[in-house]
Amino acid sequence: MKKQFVAVLGATIFLMGASILMGAQSQPPTQTTPPKTAAKQPQAKTQQEYDAFKKLEGEPDIAKKALAGEQFIKDYPNSELIGPYATPLLVDAYQRLNNFQKVVEYGEKALLANPPQQTVLFIYQAIVVAYQQLNNYEKTVEWAEKFLTADHNNTFALYMLATVIPERIKDDDLDRQQKLDHTTDYAKKLLEVTNTMQKPATITEDQWKMQRAQLQGGAYSALGFVALHKKNYDEAISEYKKSLEVYPKDGIAYYRLGLAYSFAKKNDEALKALATSVALNGPAQARSYLEQLYKAKNNGSLDGLDKVISEAASGVK
Predict the structure, then answer these.
(1) Distance between CA atoms of 233 and 257, rounded to whole angstroms?
(2) Is residue 134 a contact partner of residue 100, using CB atoms and an 8 Å limit?
(3) Are 112 and 41 in contact (CB under 8 A)?
(4) DSSP code of residue 151
(5) Residue 148: other Cβ atoms inside 10 A
(6) 1-29+43-147 has which CATH code?
(7) Given its phi and psi angles, is residue 304 left (phi above 0), alpha (psi -120 to 50 degrees) or beta?
(8) Who's near 34: CB < 8 A, 6+ residues apart?
(9) How far is Cα 109 from Cα 119, in angstroms, rounded to an integer?
(10) What kind and span of H or E run contains 237?
(11) pLDDT at 313
């Protein structure tokens, strides 16, 4: 699974998530503040409870915020503020602390409280990221599908499904074709959505250009991986080249492009793609496969390989 991309996109997640939480975590009312005509909102039962929540909400130190959240739940286990307010704050804090087990724990609890839609989407995204970082394939797919059900055009959910599913497809899987078809559908939908959607207000133009390039690159890579699984090597080459046109710093895409070239008996092109993958710190397998092809071409010698890799690095945009 492409954890490196998720880490990069994580910066955008935090930017968007912070704004979502800022909106959702508006000051919870005490018992005396709501107008009589308003729908019943979660309320603090005492001033002490209210003050404890405000301390949690305003804590700037992320580690201390997590501790304050845990303490609030312990001190006020029946508080109406836990589900819609305190628990999402804990999800955000633990995501920033890379404590992914806690993200899952509190994310699932937060969803049971039926928080506002924007908070729901933030939590779904946090849980998907958490399971992906925990290397739990089944749960990553399960929660990405739930996320997509809640938001049919969500680019992050589409990306995760398009790129995670083909990583685990085996030739003898009984549902192999179904997985390949689903991957294709998710990838095509991702391209369709990213071609038409507008920049989110919470990120800059440069951040949006980078995120869209990563998303579209991932979609083309997913289509390339499907073709690779089907042994349609020319098609795989075409899709991986499209991926690298929009996002040229993907070491994994260069590695799989190299594989496709090699399987298509285009070894010179394979050498160049694999060298570029190595230069971009792609998968460890890229180096070993590159050395294998290079030795076959150069009578068992690796002399000059470092220069090839260096030249490949200089050619990346």
Answers:
(1) 9
(2) yes
(3) no
(4) S
(5) 20
(6) 1.25.40
(7) left
(8) 40, 41, 43
(9) 13
(10) helix 233-246
(11) 87
Q: What does the domain layout of the chain look like in residue ranges?
A: 1-29+43-147
**pLDDT tier at 3 (50, 70, 90 boundaries)?**
low
pLDDT by residue (tens digit) across 230-279?
Answer: 999 999 999 999 999 999 999 999 999 999 999 999 999 999 999 999 99
Comparing 31-40, 153-162, 245-254, 289-298, the range with the smallest average pLDDT is: 31-40
What 3 state SS string does 266-292 have? CHHHHHHHHHHHHHCCCCHHHHHHHHH
Tell me if 252 sits within 8 A of 2, measured CB to CB. Answer: yes
DSSP reduced 3-state for 61? coil
Give the HSE-up count for residue 206: Cα atoms under 13 Å, Cβ half-sphere: 1
Would you state the pLDDT for residue 2? 54
Alpha-carbon distance values, 152 to 110, 149, 217 (Å): 21, 6, 20
Buried b (16+ CB within 10 A) or exposed e, 281-296: ebeeebbebbeebbee
Helix (H, G, I), strand (E, B) or coil at 46: coil
pLDDT, tens only, 27-75: 333 333 444 445 578 889 999 999 999 999 999 999 999 999 999 999 9
CA distances from 235 to 85, 301, 311 (A): 49, 32, 27
Q: Which residues pair with 30 in a beta bridge?
A: 44
Q: What is the signed CA dihedral for 21, 125, 248, 235, rounded to 10 degrees?
A: -150
Bridge partners of residue 44, in order along the sequence: 30
* Paired strand residues for 48: none
Q: Confirm if 302 and 294 have CB atoms less than 8 A apart.
A: yes
Break the chain down into helix, strand, coil percent, rounded to 5.
75, 0, 25
